[in-house]
Structures
1.
Amino acid sequence: MAEVSAQRWKAFIADEPSCSVLQTAEWAEVKEKFGWTARCVITDAAAALILFRRLPRWTFGATVAYIPRGPILRGGNEYQLKLFWEEVHALCRREKAIFLRVEPDIEERADEAVPLLSSMADFRAAFATVQPPRTILLSVNLPEQDWLSRMNQKTRYNTNYSMRPEQGLTLTLPDDVGVFYPLFAETGARDAFGVHSREYYQTVYDIFRKERKAFNLVATAGGEPIAALMLFIQGRRGYYLYGASANAERRRMPNHFLQYHAMRICAEHGCVDYDLWGIPDEDPAVLEAQFRERADGLWGVYRFKRGYGGRIARMLGSFDKVYSPLLYRLAALIDEKRRERA
């Protein structure tokens, strides 16, 4: 078996509890509604959802290919993994990809890392990353008291404070993003990060919600929404992909309130871990030495996330397989110029 249908992929993922949310049939459906084409490959050694994006007309139909948080390993040896990559490369060439970017959902020190990297000898380090390679994982298959004792003193205090009745916070779970989106846009303007359209977030929520894999958590005070969090459940892990808060009423600690409720939902759905999704890609010693001073990039959210006392994990990183060297160099140059302007 090599390339398979979307239906076959969905059935396959149902039996893969360790699969990332970005390798699901739901994520493929989302991306296909916003300009990507999704293809799926399954072999005895590994499987992958591969996304293709068409490039401008002057490239004569060329694409870029991307495996987000994959492939999914199935226990194959290095030789079998090389056969898997041959299937992937053949598909990418049929789709006129100038390069394939792969960001494995495997930690650097995991046993699976060695055979996977050995099978990727013809890949190079990518000129950019799409997903943040470093994150914080919170174990949620523990008593709630252990969650609190794991937190640092300030985060524990703020969490308990947010749950007090006198703070007046109420949890709602609306089925549309009409409340979430304005808060997210306000947060993006405050913290200087890009925001998709309201249609995008509504589409993401709707597709995952119909499979009972998404939760739109909103904290209100006096009937007014002041913070929101979109939680995703996939297999044994919960994912904090999107969060937002108003500039006003932050003294009520609504973000702590929502995170605690998100952890409860993860536990209720049998998750082992809650992925806080994205911190600066620096060694733990550097993170601890600089988090009080830095505010650029993901440093601001790291200050918040570190308080929960989770485990810092780094994935293998981002790798490119080049099929068209000339166009690849051009793509790298365009990306470099874009980042200089940012």
2.
Amino acid sequence: MNTAKQAPRLLPVFSLLFTATLWGIVWYPLRLLQGQGLAGPWSALISYGAALLVCSWILVRNRQQLPGNYRSLLFLSVAAGWTNVAFIIAVLDGTVVRVLLLFYLSPFWAVCLGWVMLGERLDGKSILVFGIAVLGAMVMLWDERIGLPWPRDGSDWLAVSAGFAFALSNVYVRKMQAVGIWVKSVSSWVGVVVVAIAWIVVTGAGTPVVSPETLLYAVLLGLCGFLVMTVTVQYGVTRMPIHRSAIILLFELVAGALSAMWLTDEVVLSREWAGGGMIIIAAVIAARIHANESP
């Protein structure tokens, strides 16, 4: 096994594990901001708006990548915008376990969309690894008290639609190989800002009255959190098949469970440890397959 050749091929895997970890803990600062009076849509607008403001020059510098990709970038922008705004609102307003369970139907959507739009096919080994990962997610999240994973209210529908949009946005990230990661990232932030503004206008949400410190924390969350998370997820998704990146991104559930245990009074149950272990096993197998494939 050539370690030198494996190292660069494992960078996308580490990138996805890193962003999954950040997504697994981002609920905490979002809840802190909400506790200070900054609702979900406004957190999304300020945080992603800060990232967009700092990096908007990238679209100008790389404008030669835009011709021929306008439609795909538009779809990416809308899908990424809806993913982030809908997920933030759902996880803040709904039952977290149900929101995660419904959002993490996204690997199923990813396989279907990858099949139709990218022509990606799963061999026997990939099907087995995918099954282990999804089963681990179901074991980890399942709770008879929350019922079947079928939408029951607005937050549930937001979670399902966010999961589908997440899979769709990743397919477009993967599809546009000739477009740079930063161009795709900035396009995603444009979508989040537009969708957040539209949500605020349609719902008639008033301007929040918050302290300057709260606004600063939201900006820092955008620049130190969402900016990094977007770039790293797009780097990883661009460099491996959709179904494989979807498996590795399920690590967010493990990070979320551990962060909830450390930051709150929640206790991680034995079934959650078992489900998390299955996800980790599937992610390790997927990483090894990716590392051993020829470039």
3.
Amino acid sequence: MLSVLIIAGSDSSAGAGIQADLKTCAALDVYAMTAITALTAQNTMGVTAIHEVPADFVAAQIDTVVTDIRPDAVKTGMLANAAIIDVVAAKITEHALPHVVVDPVMVAKSGDRLLLEDAVRALRELLFPLADVLTPNIPEAEDLLGHPVRTDEEVREAARELQSLGPRNVVMKGGHREGDAAIDILFDGRDFHDFSTPRIRTTSRHGTGCTFASAIAAFLARQETVPEAVKHAKEYLTEALRRAEPIGHGHGPVHHFWDLYPD
């Protein structure tokens, strides 16, 4: 059976993080393993506490999993601090792990910061060069690059700048932009590929970034090309947003298992 290794933080409300990643992979018929980097106390309204896992224990989780079950792809999410980013990059290199999808998780949907400031440099310098696909949203791109990203041309220029840091492909997510269409832009170092779907107006947006990146990893594990994986991941997420039902009092989760249930 095809498999994906998820390296990310836990969300106690199960809408984002490891829990969303597991649901996504299960829905897409790919076996998911995990290396947990942090525990969060959070719900649909916000994050109240974060407990970071020691970096050596993150390394132990990765070593133990991959020496038994070889992953066909890897997805990283919340990495919390520079020490964890260091060991994750080292282990990806040591084990020559394939199809690495990096979701540069820095801020939760509620606005709570999930990546410490001193870790941003480590993320850029150590992990980006190992990424087959980088999946920033607009606020993350602005944080990483240190300047606003607003217009269509600025989005494309930001993709070029981020791709120059090492990722082979960059997907600029369009969820934070205005308009009736949600347009994700993939840059492969040479060409741009636009993926457009109707924008879903919903408060159930918790975990969309985690879900999208995990779906890309799952489709890459299934030996799809990067453009194919991005296209199918976007289609899966769009329907998960459309089928979501209100849960909680804030930003509820998407419906990961929409394909298993009738309307």
